[in-house]
Amino acid sequence: MTLTAASLFAINGAVAKVILSSGITPLRLTEFRATFAFVGLALVLVVTAPMRLRLSRPEVPFLVFYGICGFALVQWLYLVAIHRLPIGIGLLLEFTAPVLVALWARFGWHEQVRGRVWLALGLSLAGLALVAEVWSGVILDGLGVAAGLGAAVVLATYYLAGERGVGRRDPLSLVCYSLLFASLFWAVVQPWWSFPFTALGGWTSLHGNLAGTSAPLWLLYAWLVVLGTMVPFALSIGALRHLPATTVGIIATFEPVAASAVAWVWLGESLDAAQLVGGAVVLAGIVLAQTSR
Fold this sequence. Notes:
Layout: H1 2-21, H2 26-48, H3 60-84, H4 87-94, H5 97-107, H6 116-132, H7 142-165, H8 171-189, E1 203-205, E2 214-216, H9 217-238, H10 245-251, H11 254-267, H12 273-290
């Protein structure tokens, strides 16, 4: 389930990049993704388990915070990062979140954390230096790097707050309500009546190695919502019933590997030898961070 979710998220990165090339902004695409994923999950819960949608007033502040920080900002910063950087590099930056989680657990919550967290931090920083090829000058888009690192910070918040949130309600309804408040947040930032719905009726090239093939934009948007959001979220959450969260987190590091492969095959994006080594070092640091708590 976790590997399938990671694979769908990986393919979704390429789908999102193609949609962004059609002219829509990352803000608008994030708004669309969150809103329609909420609608889909809500319909599923209404039909299958309406009791799980019960909401008490004390839960609302947490869900508002979790929805805005853990869903609205994570998705937006991720889209900005992959729009301006190769998908694999954007994901590597975002996936350093487990290192931040371990550090916060040690210094914020004063948990017992294994000493390997320092090795994890060192490996992640060294790997990112290789990915950025710092010896040759700054060659990566600065705003894209900032967005990727910002995504890591809010993704770490998503993990930490989620640990608390699943103790209060079931994971699927937690995601559903979080997407609701993320949708409301974006509706205030950019009202729906100004959304360019006419763009859904157009066609776009699939770019890269599939440049000779075109697809309707509505189909790509549908993939983004259903197979790029609803299904992988449900699978990754469902996997927590069978595996510990740490194991799920380690297996989920397959996503940046798969995303790099998809971006290479589909979009023609490639990393040189130093960047590939750096990516492997970052992944090693992530695995160590996941097992340090």
